[in-house]
Structure formats: C-alpha cells, structure tokens
Amino acid sequence: MNNNVSKIKTLYAYEDGDTITPRMGVQIATGHGLQQYYDAQTRVVSNTDFSSYPATLFPQPYSGKAGAVVVPAAGGQWYFNNIADNNGILDADGTVKAAFADRFELTEVTMNGKKFPGLKIKANLVTPQNNIATDIYIYYQGTYTGKPFVCEQMIPVQQVVGNAYQLLVSVTGADGTGDEVISDDQESLTYTAMLQMMSTGASINDAVITFEHFGTNGWEAVANQAGVTVINGNSLTLYEAAVDGSELFRAKAVYLGKSYYATVNPTDEHDPYYIVDGCSIAGDTVKRGETVSFTPKVYKRHNGVGEEDEDVTASEGWTFTYTLVSQKTGDTITEINETGITYEKLTQYGGIATRIQASRP
Questions:
Q1: Residue 100 neighbours by CB under 8 Å, 6+ apart
Q2: Beta carbons of 353 and 324 less than 8 angstroms apart
Q3: In Å, how far are 46, 97, 128, 134 from 159, measured between CA atoms?
C-alpha cells in the first residue's frame, strides 16, 4: 500500500466531482529558456532570441477522474499578460489576431499520442519599439468536460549588465518531447542542465553540475541508481520509482566560487493517490493584500477516460505536512509557514514552492 504522496502547489480548478490540475508544457531547444534578457540601452534581446530559438507553449490539464493528462475541448483562448477580451491572442474565428501575428502562431503538440493546442512564440516579446520592462505572462483558458481551467506561464524579463550567469534546465521525455509527466506512455524523464552567460547565451562548459532532491530532510544529493535516478554528466534521468506524486528536484552549478540553482517539478501518473491542494488562490500569482491558505485532500486516482459518472470522494486518514522552498535560492524557508505566504514574502523569496506531504499509517 502507498502510504506517502506529495504535491507541489500548481494551478487548479475543482468542480462537479472532478479535479482539473492545469500546468503549462514548454518546448524549446536544449540549452535555451523562456527568458527575455535585454540590453538596457538598445533594448535588443541577447538571450533567448525567440526568432532563432522559438518556444512552444501548450496546456496540460490533469483530470483526477481520467487519471491522466487530458486534451482540452476545442475553442480555448490564449491571453497576453492579462485575461481580458482585448488581451486575447485569438480572434473569434480561432486565428491569431493581426496585432499579435508578428510574435505568435498556432501549432499543435503531440504528446504521448495526444494532440494539444500549442502557441509558438516566434519573435522576441521585448523590442526596441515597446516599453516592456517587467515579466510577461501567457495564459491559456480552456475547459475539459465543461470544467474551466487556466494555465499560466511566466516569461522573465530582465536588463542585463556585466557578466551575470543563469542555470537553465531542459526536459526531454522518453518520446523526445518536453513533458514533465511520467505515465504509461512515458516511463522516464531526462533533465539537462547548462550554465549560461546571460548577456550572450554562451554555455559555460567548465561549471560543475550536480543534482539534488527535496525530501523530508530538505535538499539531498541525488545518488546514481539504475532504474531510479541515473546521472550522466550534466543530465539526470528519472524513472517511475523516483517520483511519488509530484516532487521537487534541482540542478546546482558551481562556477568561479558561486552556486547557481534551477528547480524542476516532475509528476508521476502511476501513483494510486493524488493531492488536491485546496489553495485559496485559483492560480499561482498573489496580489498585494492577499494571503494564501491550503485545505488539502487526498483522492484515489481513477484509470481510464470515461468515468465521468463515478462519484469521487476524498480518501480519509491522511496527515499533511508542509515545506516552503525559495524559488530564488532553493533554500528551505523557516521564518513563515503555509499560513504566512503573502505578496511581500513571495517578492522577498522570488516565489515560493509549497511541498505538501500526505502520510497515513
């Protein structure tokens, strides 16, 4: 019997007996990220140049009843920076509006035999002609069996001065695509880490890269274990036994005496139970004056689409523990608990990942 399951806070919607847990998938060439780092004087983007390395976003809603990532119903809408009619990227006929056609185009992503609607970012979002200086958000609003959900993806925007570095981690599934879900169709995930100079995007090949897992004792080094966690240079391959529900792993790069971190969040669809976090915020952004709260429940995972008439009830007898992790450094946060996550604390820590661990005898 599985007596432990974990969950990392993500976007969700809960209604009418099914739980939809949305997340955004990303496809981009290995060694490149979604950031828009630009010169303060010219506003020319140095990294990543989407005109050379386009990125594709696609929704990945997870249905508790189906027990799998499911394809949204047709007719979803993409939004730029704000979910409002005038920020919708698609016209009424489902094509990209003329105002956005220079930056975006529609595409399709095939993942584990399923076809998802995709949005390709084909040009830089920061240009000398606009005044964008803060992070950009791309949203997908859709439905599955009539239940609405919203996926969100942040595009970091930052001025670059001097020799600053960043650690990027790309993911490749067993089928060669950028999916972070371990399933029957995809039995492993491979993460590849690369330290880059932010101003040029040049790779730093002599950085020392290691991998860590966040568990009950905090961050611990990942051991090389066949069929579970396999390390090959700057790559980490995870198999089903390495992921219980939803987990946090991170890559660490050491270069010129400094450490750089990047966190990833793989999910395993094989586990018999999953957590609905019950977060009071129906998204992953918190406004000034808001404080986050959690009322988690554990549900038994159902296998196979077509069980929409089956009653879904919570599994009883679970005890929940919480661990807060800084998205900026990967360090465990101890000065606040899960009831003290506010806009100010999120700003201080560059975002906070909340790991919920459910256990029962």
A1: 80, 89
A2: yes
A3: 10, 29, 13, 10
Q: Which amino acid is at 297?
A: K
β-pairing, 114-121 with 104-111? antiparallel
Helices marked H in the chain: 343-349
| Terminal CA-CA length for the chain | 10
Furthest-apart CA pair in the chain: how many Å? Answer: 61
In Å, what is the CA distance from 227 to each residue of 56, 166, 232, 269, 282?
Answer: 30, 30, 13, 17, 37
For residue 272, count CB atoms less than 10 angstroms from its CB and return exposed for 0-12, middle for 13-18, buried for 19 or more. middle
Structure tokens at 150: 């919203």
**Nearest CA among 259, 246, 224 for reference residue 331:** 259
Question: In DSSP terms, which residues pair with 251 in a beta bridge?
Answer: 211, 262
Using DSSP's 3-state secondary structure scheme, residue 24 falls into strand
DSSP 177-212: S---EEBTTB-EEEEEEEEEETTT--B-TT-EEEEE
For 230-257, what is each residue's pLDDT tens digit? Answer: 999 999 999 988 988 788 999 999 999 9
* Rounded distance between C-alpha atoms, residue 361 and residue 355, angstroms: 20
d(CA 275, CA 300): 9
Q: What is the pLDDT of residues 9-31, one digit of tens each?
A: 532 233 345 667 788 989 998 87
Q: How far apart are CA 269 and CA 103, in angstroms?
A: 34
Radius of gyration for the alpha carbons in the chain, expressed in angstroms and rounded: 20
pTM of the model: 0.67
d(CA 260, CA 249): 14
The secondary element (H helix, E strand) that includes residue 326 is: strand 319-326
Averages of pLDDT over each 10 residues, the chain, 361 residues: 58 46 86 86 89 95 78 96 91 96 96 91 95 92 90 89 83 72 81 88 92 88 94 94 88 94 85 81 76 87 44 77 85 90 87 88 78
